[in-house]
Amino acid sequence: MSKKISILIPVFNEEGNISAISEAIHIVFEDTSHEYEILFINDGSSDNSLAIIKELCSRDSRLKYISFSRNFGKDNALLAGFKFATGDALVTMDADMQHPPELIHDMIELWEQGNDVIYTYRADRNEHASNLNQFTSRMFYKIINHLSDVELEDGIADYRLLDKKVVTTFNNLHEDRPFFRGLIKWVGFQQIGIPYTPNARANGETKYSNKALTRLALQGITSFSVKPLFIAIYLGLTFSMLSLLYIPYVIYSLYFHLAISGWTSIIVTIAFFGGLQLMILGILGIYLGKLFVQSKQRPHFIIKESNIIE
C-alpha cells in the first residue's frame, strides 16, 4: 500500500521560483508509487506569489495553498503546514531551489527504513554564499551549540522529512516563536542526518540578512537554554571580586597621602560597567519578553484564504 508524502513550502516573495519548484517536485515523484501533495504557505508576500500559486492550484488538485493575512515568519508558516498536511510523512523545503528536490528520494528511502526524522546539513563550503555570510553562519552554530542545550550540525537546513507522529507531536506544542532547527533535535525520535550541496538560488535574493541571523541566534539560544542568565551572574561575581583588588590601593594612597588621580580611567571604568549592566539587563529582558508574549496567547498565524479550509 503506497503512502502519501506532503511537501510543505513556505513562500515569501518567491514569484520567480514557484513554478520551477512545483515542476521539479512533480518530476521527482514521476517514478515513485507514492501519492503526494504540495502545500504552499504564502507568508504575506507582496509580489505576485499568491496569484501564481492560485493559478497552479487551479490546474492541479495535488497543489494546495494557505495564505496569511500578513508576514508571520517562516517558522509559523511551517506550523500552519504541520496542522493542515495530510501525508504519512511531511517534507519541508525552501522555494528558492537551493534545496535539491531529487534528495527527496533518499529521504523517503531512509524513512521507509524506520527513521522518523531525516534532516539535512550542508556538506561543505557553500560556493554560492559570500565569505562574510559563511563566516557568520559558522559563528551562529558555534555560539548556539556552546550556549544552548541542543547540538546542531554546522549548516543544518530547513530541508527535512518528518514522520506523521513527529508532526503530531509538534502540533501539540504551544511554544511561541518556535525555533524549528532546535525543536527538531529536542523532540527526539529516531533521527539521521544527510549532507547536501545547495544549488544556486534560482531567482530573487535571500531573505536572511546578518541582522536576521543574529535575531535567529538569540531566539534559538533563549529558547533552549538559561545559560546566558548564568553567564550574567558569573560576570557580575567576577567583576565584583576584581573590584575588591582596588581596596588595597586606596588604603595605601590614603596612608601615604598620595593623590588618587585618573579622571579618564574612572570614566572608562564607569562606561565599561554601565555597558556590562545594560548587556545583563538585555539578557533578562529577552527572557521576560518571551514570557510576556507567551502570556498573550495570540495565534501563531492568521489565515486570510485557502483552498483547503472552508
What would your notes on this structure say?
The structure is a single chain. The protein is elongated. Helix content is 49%, strand content 16%. Helix 5 (131-147) packs parallel to helix 8 (210-224). It has one domain (4-224, 298-306): Alpha-Beta Complex (Spore Coat Polysaccharide Biosynthesis Protein SpsA, Chain A). With 310 residues, it is α/β, with parallel strands linked by helices. Strand 1 (4-11), helix 1 (18-28) and strand 2 (35-42) form a beta-alpha-beta unit. It contains eleven helices and eight strands. The chain has an eight-stranded mixed beta sheet with strand order 7-5-6-4-1-2-3-8, with helices on both faces. The two termini are 30 Å apart.
Low-confidence stretches: none
- CATH topology descriptor: Spore Coat Polysaccharide Biosynthesis Protein SpsA, Chain A
The structure class reads: alpha/beta
Q: Name the assembly state.
A: single chain
Give the proportion of residues in helices: 40-55%
Q: What is Rg? A: 25 Å
Q: Element order, helices and strands?
A: EHEHEHEHEHEHHEHHHHE
CATH homologous superfamily designation: Spore Coat Polysaccharide Biosynthesis Protein SpsA, Chain A
Mean pLDDT: 76
Between the first and last Cα atoms, what is the distance in angstroms?
Answer: 30 Å
CATH class: Alpha Beta
Quick one: overall form?
Answer: elongated
Largest sheet, if any? Answer: 8 strands, mixed
Structural domain count: 1
CATH architecture: Alpha-Beta Complex
